[in-house]
Amino acid sequence: MKLYSTHRLSPEVNFREAIFQGLPPDNGLYMPSEIPALPQTFWDNVENLSFNEIAIAVSEALLGGDIPETDLETLIHSALDFEAPAVRLEEDLYCLELFHGPSMAFKDFGARFMAAAMSYFLRQSGQTLNILVATSGDTGGAVAQGFYRVPGISVTILYPKGKVSAIQEMQLTTLGENIQALEVEGTFDDCQALVKQAFLDEELRSGYHLASANSINIARLIPQAFYYISAYAQLKKLGKEIVFSVPSGNFGNLTAGVLAMRMGMPVRRFVAATNVNNVVPEFLRTGVYTPISPSVSTISNAMDVGNPSNFPRLNDLLGNQMKEYLKGYFYTDAQTREGVLEIYRKYNYVACPHTAIAYLGLEDYRKETGAEVTGVFLSTAHFGKFLPEMEAILGFTPEIPERLLLKGEKKTTVVDTSYAAFKAYLKRNLI
């Protein structure tokens, strides 16, 4: 597998080089030079394949020998021991539940695959690695769980102070050992900017082995394509075109869906559903890309992104076809709360604020177009991760899984948005 930079000013690299570099030297994003279409025999039989069989087929097609076939199968079976069921709410309306992994968020798919791939390569080289990652909510917990106690890897997670839920914060601050948490006095975009600057810092790049675990890393993106194809496999028998509605912040999740489409997955359209950080819906409406700075805090905090990092990938994948395949909608906190209530009252189904935004986007798309399709809205996190907000919306305390009842001492370092201070911290703590 060869990968190029979206800025096209850096040399092509292989998969191993891309996942450890994170960002190309020209500050672009890595993308596959070729996106192979899966053979028609695969699509003819996809409904009979397990989730991991789908994951193996997609990985083998994309990675093209970067990891031997038997090793890749072992890697996937060890990393992905949970499913992504499409739950029927009514005829032609399904919720794709992506919260059955260890941190109960969709990012478990990418984080665990990436941790397994990095560990595989590190065992071969005997090197150590420093992961730097910014989170607006769920990435931090997924990365912390995915890399916890992985030999030879140190993880530094940056998150915006006071802007993640209590459970999200506990998931990334209580593990300790090789997981370090930095509480940044700023927004997610500030956290992301610090991480990006570190990757472009020649002193850090030459002195330490750095890598990213955000969706800017191609190893996070590839496994997210697995569950789109799995959803298609589950719903293929219905015989209708599928529309996926994706709650979107950094747009890695939606980009993975488009990647699956480019590999041959039949799909009618993708709905890009956001909160009031509506950069992409506005671009789809006006043709003008205008980042929001600073990003606006909302109850769907994992989507509080004012300058989506993955937009260049979307642009490379779709170009002038973007409006043909994407439809954008955005929602206020008040509308989001109404969406949570509507789902519960109509279907007796409890959904988190991010999931509610995806539902609202799908419903508005169907009303606007009148399309006879099977609608799938993605549930990116378990509602229990947002318990105080859910209690306020629903008027009662929904039952949450035992594994979200976290205990432990919060271990963080508070930092401001100064890069000099962040760099000094890294030089004291990197391995």
What would you note in describing this structure?
The protein has 431 residues and is α/β, with parallel strands linked by helices. The protein has a domain at 84-106 and 220-401: Rossmann fold. The protein has helices spanning 15-21, 40-45, 51-63, 69-79, 107-125, 138-147, 166-173, 188-200, 202-207, 218-221, 224-235, 252-262, 279-286, 311-318, 322-325, 333-347, 353-369, 387-394, 419-429; strands at residues 2-5, 13-14, 30-32, 86-90, 93-97, 129-134, 153-160, 179-184, 210-212, 242-247, 269-274, 326-330, 374-379, 413-415. Strands 4-5-13-10-11-12 form a six-stranded mixed beta sheet, sandwiched between helices. Strand 4 and strand 5 form a beta hairpin. It is globular, with a radius of gyration of 20 Å. 51% of the residues are buried.
